Amino acid sequence: MELFSHKGYSGSIETSIEDGVLHGQILCINDLVTYEAVTLPDLKQAFVAAVEDYLETCKAAGKEPDKPFNGLFNVRTGNELHRKAFLRAKQDDTTLNGVVVAALNQYLSGQQNEMTNNQAV
Q1: pLDDT at residue 120, rounded to an integer
Q2: Domain limits of the chain?
Q3: From CA 107, how far away is CA 75, in angstroms rounded?
Q4: Contacting residues for 55 by C-beta, under 8 A, at least 6 apart
Q5: Which of 16, 47, 108, 121 lies at a C-alpha separation of 20 to 30 Å from 1?
Q6: 19, exposed or middle or buried, with CB in 10 Å at 0-12, 13-18, 19+?
Q7: What's the confidence (pLDDT) of residue 113?
Q8: What's the CA dihedral at 98, 91, 109, 97 to 10 degrees?
Q9: SS3 letters across the chain
Q10: How far is it, in rounded angstroms, from Cα 20 to Cα 14?
């Protein structure tokens, strides 16, 4: 999925075939802020305007604009994968948290294509 970026904020790019418009929303913020347009350049312009307006609105209201992430999230793996990961972590003298952090770092470093290709074999 492609994303817009402006001043450290990201925005989605989605289509509505039914309405014949492009639309999106600013991601990772406390509020729901959406934008729409008919062309991709206009959607980018609408995204930038939405970010600017959002930042001005937050400043005027004296509130923090970013959504705080606490570093915690649930991962649903299924019983067998959970068991295998736990046992492997024990063998490697680490924790499940350590395994997940290492996997996420590998995924985000661009090695996910290698991981995906290996799974397809």
Answers
A1: 43
A2: 3-61, 79-120
A3: 15
A4: 7, 65
A5: 121
A6: exposed
A7: 55
A8: -20
A9: CCEEEECCEEEECEEECCCCEEEEEEECECCCCEEEECCHHHHHHHHHHHHHHHHHHHHHHCCCCECCCCCCCCCCCCHHHHHHHHHHHHHCCCCHHHHHHHHHHHHHHHHHHHHHHHHHC
A10: 11
pLDDT along the chain (121 residues), means of 10: 93 94 95 96 98 96 88 92 94 94 92 51 37
Tell me how far apart the alpha carbons of residues 77 and 75 are, in angstroms, rounded to a whole number.
Answer: 6
The pLDDT score that the predictor gives to residue 70 is 87
CA distance readout (Å), 99 to 10, 91, 104, 105 = 28, 12, 9, 10
Query: Is the four-CA dihedral 73, 96, 103, 81 of positive or negative sign?
Result: negative
β-pairing, 9-12 vs 34-37, is unpaired
Torsion angle, alpha carbons of 39, 40, 44, 50, to 10 = 50
